[in-house]
């Protein structure tokens, strides 16, 4: 039935069932910290800039955090497979809380950006390890339960974050945006230390123990509880991955914004990133326990899910970045109403994700994801055909449907790929999936930003970019031609997002096995 096949038995659960509720609460609090931090700062930017200055570089409050989270995901994933989830999660939470405290004490914009990077270094551990522990805690049949809870945390954070940030900045002080993390994180940390207990596990020199071939075609691996062998950490590989990811993502984030794409700084960063990528390959091929092992891309299931969720990160940029601009500039909505148009997908996404188990148990993980991303492709293609200027309920309805489609797409792939590996590979696998999704979002922001600015320049006779046009519209002095140009730019972005969704569909159809080689409990 579906993908549930007998292959091998996973190791024992990492904590007693009686304490699992406390650990789940800690995971949800940890996820809330990471999720809120992505949104709560946005509405407090005017107050932060007014107090600290540094308007020209304030975008690095977001870019610096994003870069630190993204480049550390593979490192934390491997460390959690080597040393266990608990020490990595505890260290990440401590680092995140330290960064939050330092952010609250920042004396200028440069210091705040540096401390946001410290937060991001801890946030990478929170995001990856929480998702891995969710799979450790629950058997396959129950994993949608915990994943839907985590999806709900993200949904609530997306809706509440901007409002909470605005309230704290307006009625207290922007520094409370970071100080509020401390009591929440302290409770999560105490629950983890007190209630999470992991069994000792065997770690062979190769890190795995090969099991017989499962029905479904590919060879799977698992581990058994035993005494852990002396672990070796590929610190050179970790440093190289961090440097390579940081340089390339900086080039993508700043290209076309701080400098032109074909300028000296942009070409230098891309050249240095490619050279570092070659160095990563050389180091990882020689390492006994590489940070990014080759099997992540050699196994069809993991490679297909990585690529598909990378495309998901790419397409998510269209609604999250450009829909609010469309709602305010073209539909003439206020900021609060425009935020509601976007936030409706956070209602249907977790609900669809929770119900997806009833689908993938019948038709399998891959076919359920194909159904979801196929529907998402059609919904994204429908956006450019909305009437101009249209009514607010029209894009809101599309966002509601898009959330339902993507919930049917993402969760089966995440649960499915985590179920194809044993404990000693699950952290690395989960981190690779999240890394690809984060990288897709970074690439999407750069690519679609260039597309939108190019369409605006063409429609307005070579003048203007999305930011300057939006500011002009906010002043209510822009002619109708500018509104029409913004609509055309956002329509082009949604067409690009539909292409990304179609790419994910083709990857799953052509690369992913029809039945995932699942390890059953």
Please write out the topology:
Layout: H1 17-37, H2 45-52, H3 60-83, H4 85-104, H5 109-137, H6 143-171, H7 176-179, H8 181-195, E1 209-210, E2 221-222, H9 235-254, H10 264-286, H11 295-298, H12 300-329, H13 335-343, H14 345-363, H15 365-382, H16 393-418, H17 423-459, H18 466-474, H19 480-510
Antiparallel strand pairs: 1-2
Helix pairs in contact: 1-5, 1-6, 1-8, 3-4, 3-5, 3-9, 3-17, 4-5, 4-8, 5-6, 5-17, 6-14, 9-10, 9-17, 12-13, 12-16, 12-17, 12-19, 13-16, 14-15, 14-16, 15-16, 15-19, 17-19
Structure description:
By secondary structure, the protein is mostly helical. Helix content is 72%, strand content 1%. The protein contains 19 helices and two strands. The protein has a two-stranded antiparallel ribbon with strand order 1-2. α6 packs antiparallel against α14 and α14 crosses α16 (393-418). The longest helix has 37 residues, at 423-459.
């Amino acid at each position: 039935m579906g993908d549930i096949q007998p292959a091998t038995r996973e190791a024992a659960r990492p904590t007693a069932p009686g304490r699992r509720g406390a650990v789940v609460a800690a995971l949800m609090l940890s996820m809330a910290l990471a999720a809120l931090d992505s949104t709560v700062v946005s509405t407090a930017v005017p107050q932060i800039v007014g107090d600290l200055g540094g308007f020209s570089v304030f975008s690095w409050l977001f870019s610096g955090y994003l870069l630190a989270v993204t480049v550390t995901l593979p490192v934390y994933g491997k460390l959690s497979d080597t040393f266990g989830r608990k020490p990595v999660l505890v260290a990440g939470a401590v680092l995140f809380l330290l960064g939050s405290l330092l952010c609250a004490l920042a004396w200028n914009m440069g210091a705040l950006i540096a401390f946001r990077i410290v937060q991001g270094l801890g946030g990478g551990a929170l995001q990856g390890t929480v998702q891995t522990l969710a799979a450790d805690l629950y058997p396959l049949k129950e994993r949608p339960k915990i994943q839907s809870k985590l999806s709900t945390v993200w949904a609530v954070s997306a809706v509440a974050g901007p409002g909470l940030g605005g309230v704290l900045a307006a009625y207290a002080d922007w520094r409370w945006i970071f100080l509020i993390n401390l009591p929440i994180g302290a409770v999560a940390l105490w629950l983890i230390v007190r209630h999470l207990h992991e069994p000792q596990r065997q770690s062979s020199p190769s890190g795995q123990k090969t099991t017989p071939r499962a029905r479904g075609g590919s060879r799977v691996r698992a581990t058994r509880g035993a005494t852990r062998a002396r672990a070796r950490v590929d610190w050179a590989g970790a440093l190289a991955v961090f440097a390579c990811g940081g340089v390339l993502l900086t080039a993508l984030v700043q290209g076309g914004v701080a400098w032109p794409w074909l300028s000296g700084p942009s070409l230098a960063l891309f050249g240095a990133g490619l050279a570092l990528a070659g160095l990563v390959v050389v180091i990882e091929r020689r390492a006994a326990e590489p940070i990014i092992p080759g099997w992540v891309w050699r196994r069809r299931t993991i490679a297909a899910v990585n690529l598909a969720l990378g495309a998901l990160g790419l397409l998510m940029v269209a609604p999250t970045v450009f829909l609010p601009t469309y709602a305010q500039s073209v539909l003439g909505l206020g900021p609060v109403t425009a935020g509601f148009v976007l936030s409706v997908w956070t209602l249907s996404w977790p609900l669809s994700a929770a119900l997806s188990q009833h689908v993938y148990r019948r038709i399998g993980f891959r076919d359920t994801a194909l159904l979801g991303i196929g529907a998402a492709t059609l919904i994204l293609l429908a956006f450019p055909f909305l009437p101009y200027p249209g009514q607010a309920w029209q894009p809101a309805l599309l966002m509601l449907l898009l959330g339902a489609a993507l919930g049917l797409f993402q969760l089966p792939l995440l649960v499915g790929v985590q179920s194809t590996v044993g404990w000693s590979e699950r952290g690395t696998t989960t981190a690779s999936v999240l890394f690809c999704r984060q990288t897709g979002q970074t690439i999407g922001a750069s690519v679609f930003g260039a597309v939108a600015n190019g369409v605006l320049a063409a429609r307005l006779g070579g003048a203007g970019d999305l930011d300057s046009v939006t500011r002009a519209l906010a002043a209510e002095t822009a002619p109708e031609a500018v509104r029409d140009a913004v609509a055309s730019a956002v329509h082009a972005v949604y067409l690009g997002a539909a292409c990304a969704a179609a790419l994910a569909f083709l990857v799953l159809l052509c690369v992913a096995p029809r039945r995932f080689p699942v390890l059953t409990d």
